[in-house]
Automatic annotation (TrEMBL):
<keyword id="KW-0812">Transmembrane</keyword>
<feature type="transmembrane region" description="Helical">
    <location>
        <begin position="419"/>
        <end position="439"/>
    </location>
</feature>
<keyword id="KW-0472">Membrane</keyword>
<feature type="transmembrane region" description="Helical">
    <location>
        <begin position="383"/>
        <end position="399"/>
    </location>
</feature>
<keyword id="KW-0328">Glycosyltransferase</keyword>
<protein>
    <submittedName>
        <fullName>Biofilm PGA synthesis N-glycosyltransferase PgaC</fullName>
        <ecNumber>2.4.-.-</ecNumber>
    </submittedName>
</protein>
<feature type="transmembrane region" description="Helical">
    <location>
        <begin position="58"/>
        <end position="85"/>
    </location>
</feature>
<keyword id="KW-1133">Transmembrane helix</keyword>
<dbReference type="GO" id="GO:0016757">
    <property type="term" value="F:glycosyltransferase activity"/>
</dbReference>
<comment type="similarity">
    <text>Belongs to the glycosyltransferase 2 family.</text>
</comment>
<dbReference type="InterPro" id="IPR029044">
    <property type="entry name" value="Nucleotide-diphossugar_trans"/>
</dbReference>
<dbReference type="Pfam" id="PF13641">
    <property type="entry name" value="Glyco_tranf_2_3"/>
</dbReference>
<keyword id="KW-0808">Transferase</keyword>
<feature type="transmembrane region" description="Helical">
    <location>
        <begin position="357"/>
        <end position="377"/>
    </location>
</feature>
<feature type="transmembrane region" description="Helical">
    <location>
        <begin position="27"/>
        <end position="46"/>
    </location>
</feature>
């Protein structure tokens, strides 16, 4: 996505229907639509089930078809209906002036940290911004770049040193110096749209008291590097954003990502800050939700981050995310979450390892068999999931274009090749990588920050 930013005159409001549908009704209407879809899928898949049962047992056939068709179809149907019903509430005040603190944990970021600080300095936010950079054992010129920014920019910058390795150590050390009501975390390679912080704080101020965090929207800034980054551009723009909107609708965004999120400082301190976990932001968010607090998502609070441009680094990142999800599930089971919506959303994560393993061990080999003329696993029925996927992405594409990008005066880059590869092949990469992450967590292999 194009990231040549302009400041936004945000007084324009989208015209919407006055008819209000309660969240609980949206939740059950989406489930009803999903139930109808899965019933239709089961009926249409009876010949497929019969053929597969002749090759394996009935129980194994059910497990395979459920993992590659029934459950993904149900989840996509639920996502589609939820996106259709979602209506982002208006801001009460689009120009908040709360004093805020930004925490940036930095480890060997000499080529990125100055630019990140410069983009913070260029915010149209009229409240006071205090920025704390925590240097975490950098061996390059990160410290000098921060000192240069402190001299050249108008931004109030404080530089701290944390010698204990690990992002959670750096953030927790920085949290000790936060005296403002709100604190924002930003990765050292994240660039903010000029109106981003304003919209993020405005969403918090427009929310109910029990909202403890608001996740910002994270998109890619280096999508032109190669094919891998072109594919990831669509994952962030459509895949991750659609899940964030779904979770935000039901007041339980499951990851207030460390790359760019706002938190109430008192809530962070009450749960002891960031945990010693490879997915520290995942476990942190689930601990917040367990306290009966809510976590929202603000699509207009746009940031751009650098995504992995090598397959090695991509595997490390996504395996780390998979491990983080497992860490969260081990600490807080879905049924231990106090809110119905969060029980359901974390419950979906509870079955993700099953779906990824089934996809890796059954669907991918089945696809190879299909190319050889054997459609016992992958056949015409599996294509029923594709229309749902395209519909959900189309809904989100038009939302992102009309509500977010047009309003922020951004332009969607032409990346048709990346989109086709994303639709057809991305899951074939993601599921095996996730399984690799589950194996890493099972055997407690070495953690990598990056």
């Amino acid at each position: 996505m194009k990231s040549s930013f302009k400041q936004v005159n945000s007084q324009k409001k989208t015209k919407r229907s006055n008819y209000y549908i309660p969240i609980k009704m949206k939740f059950w209407l989406s489930h009803l639509f999903s139930l109808i879809w899965i019933c239709l899928s089961i009926y249409l898949a009876l010949p497929w089930l019969k053929d597969l049962t002749e090759a394996v047992s009935f129980q194994v056939a059910i497990l395979i078809i459920a993992g590659i068709s029934y459950l993904p179809g149900y989840m996509n149907a639920f996502l589609i209906m939820s996106l259709i019903l979602d209506r982002q509430p208006h801001f009460k005040n689009e120009k908040p002036t709360d004093t805020i603190t930004i925490l940036i944990a930095a480890h060997n970021e000499e080529d990125k940290i100055f630019q990140t600080l410069r983009y913070i300095d260029n915010q149209d936010y009229t409240g006071n911004i205090k920025t704390i950079v925590i240097n975490n054992r950098s061996s390059d010129q990160t410290v000098n770049e921060v000192l240069k920014a402190k001299k050249d920019l108008k931004l109030e910058i404080e530089l701290l040193q944390e010698d204990k390795p690990g992002k959670f150590h750096a953030l927790n050390y920085g949290l000790n110096f936060v005296e403002t009501s709100y604190v924002i975390t930003i990765d050292a390679d994240t660039l903010l749209h000029p109106s981003s912080i304003r919209f993020l704080v405005a969403r918090m101020n427009s929310s109910s008291e029990e909202v403890c965090a608001v996740a910002g929207s994270v998109l890619t800034k280096n999508s032109r590097d190669n094919l891998l980054t072109k594919i990831q551009e669509w994952d962030y723009f459509l895949g991750i954003a659609s899940i964030k909107r779904l979770q935000g609708l039901y007041q339980g965004t499951l990851v207030a990502q460390g790359a760019y999120s706002l938190y109430k400082t008192k809530c962070l301190k009450e749960i002891g800050g960031w945990p010693d976990a490879i997915g520290e932001d995942i476990v942190l968010t689930w601990r917040l939700l367990q306290k009966h607090w809510k976590v929202y998502f603000e699509p207009l609070a746009v940031s751009f981050t650098e995504v992995p441009n090598s397959f090695k680094h991509f595997v490390r990142q996504r395996a780390r995310w998979a491990r983080g999800m497992v860490e969260g599930l081990k600490e807080i089971k879905p049924w231990q979450q106090p809110q119905l919506y969060v029980k359901y959303l974390t419950g979906i994560n509870f079955i993700m390892p099953y779906l990824d393993i089934t996809y890796t061990l059954c669907w991918i080999p089945g696809l190879i068999l299909a190319f050889c003329g054997n459609f016992i696993i992958v056949g015409p029925m599996t294509l029923l999931v594709l229309p749902l996927t395209l519909i959900s992405y189309s809904i989100l594409y038009f939302y992102q274009r009309n509500y977010v990008f047009n309003r922020l005066q951004l332009r969607i880059r032409k990346n048709f090749v990346g989109f086709i590869l994303f639709i057809l092949f991305y899951q074939m990469i993601m599921s095996p990588v996730s399984v690799y992450g589950y194996i890493q967590e099972l055997f407690k292999l070495k953690r990598n920050w990056k």
